[in-house]
Amino acid sequence: MKKGYKALLEEANAVIETVPVDQARHLHxxxxxxxxxxxxxxxxxxxxxxxxxFSCPRGMLEFWIDxxxxxxxxxxxxxxxxxxxxxxxxxxxxxxxxxxxxxxxEVAHVGxxxxxxxxxxxxxxxxxxxxx
Length: 132
Hints:
Elements: H1 5-15, E1 17-19, H2 21-27, E2 33-37, H3 41-47, E3 54-55, H4 61-65, E4 81-85, H5 90-102, E5 107-110, H6 113-119
Parallel strand pairs: 1-5, 2-3, 2-4, 4-5
Helix pairs in contact: 1-5
């Protein structure tokens, strides 16, 4: 293997902003900040999410950010600060780096992810169970 996940994470963390969970809690509710949940929908269903967060499964990120993509989401074209999170901060670190490389300027990630958020006393919203 030429480059493993540890090297990729180290490279990402060297160029992205990591927001500590205490600071992230203060940013929650700010109209200029969008919390972006990168976890799989099953993780969100099982664990809950940060209230008001925008769900963007990690596998769709590049397609949803690019305004030329047929899958582009308008939220990523808004003049906002995007605060990515996943379960522990690994996927969100890699995603933040990718988003920066794509030209998304105001992007950071929550250090320690949703686990740190929840353990730090952050609000958690439990989605309604799926029907069917």
